[in-house]
Amino acid sequence: MITCYVNYEIEPDKLAEFEHYAKLWVPLVQKHGGYHHGYFMPHESANDLALALFSFVSLADYERYRNDIANDPKCVAAFQYANDTKCIRRYDRQFLKPFMAPMAR
């Protein structure tokens, strides 16, 4: 299993827009074979920090997901929404191997 940890630097005055973006992605990750652990929004922390965690059975499954979302109109629209609203300043991805029970396929 591989977990993608995404660290977002967001626009603090566009929190509602980022929350909308996050709500779009949870079912899309699941549609394309992943398990979304959720988004984590600012609270008693830096007001421009948000995180997301989602897992795939393997790195190959994650790579397939990356290819598939490039051709999924709902995924393309979600990326475009973030671009149009400018709710995300930047993001970084890290890949971690979780120490937990295996995910059911």
From TrEMBL:
Q: Which domain of life is it from?
A: Bacteria
Q: Give the InterPro entries listed for this entry.
A: Dimeric_a/b-barrel, NIPSNAP
- A Pfam family annotated for this UniProt entry: NIPSNAP
Q: Which residues form a coiled coil?
A: none
Domain NIPSNAP spans what residues?
Answer: 7-99
How is this protein named in the record?
Answer: NIPSNAP family containing protein
Q: Which organism is it from?
A: Maritalea porphyrae
